[in-house]
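Hey, weird one. I pasted the Adenylate kinase sequence into the form twice and got a warning about non-standard characters only the second time. First submission, copied straight from the form history:
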Amino acid sequence: MRIVLVGPPGAGKGTQAAYLAENLSIPHISTGDLFRANISQGTPLGLQAKEYMNAGHLVPDEVTIGMAEDRMRQDDAAQGFLLDGFPRNIGQAEALDTFLSAHRLKLDAVLDLEVPEEEVVRRIAGRRICRNDSSHVFHAEYSRPVKEAVCDECGGELYQREDDSEETVRKRLAVYHSETEPIIDYYKKQGLVTTISALGAVTEVTERAMRALPRG
């Protein structure tokens, strides 16, 4: 099974990708993991990416595509994979099609996680992170600490990351709409897209996604 997971920031793609990959026994391939692995291992692509990132520039598509292709060639991806964060634009989607065609493979499904824009803003802008341990995460509305701005786990100060401010979230959504959303129409023309509501409990969303996958 070869799947692409698409959705705006705050849709829960990472969480759903992990559950789906486990259920389907295929690797979860995320752009973030690809970058971290290549940079930490000092691969030629990782060194290129680090150079661009250190200069404050976006990593070019060809570097991201190269990392994704290398990962999809690995043995554990022979029977399938779940792509999360790649492709993120039409150029990357076309490159993925070319790669799959060259290996006589094809995508089985594109799952589009749908969340209303205001819900995305609420989810991300409400996050509060512990300064002592970033794995301690709370939410101003959905998962409030017992004491305002104090971590229940360790007593550390809770704060809002700069990336989580409402202004930044809306900018990230604008980028998603202009760059990534067009790949949904691209894949719709191939008959691959199923749109799934990402509202509700994590398990409910996973069940919807599993039901949307082709059988056989």
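That's the output from the first submission. The warning seems to come from a hidden character in my clipboard, not from the data itself. The radius of gyration is 18 Å.
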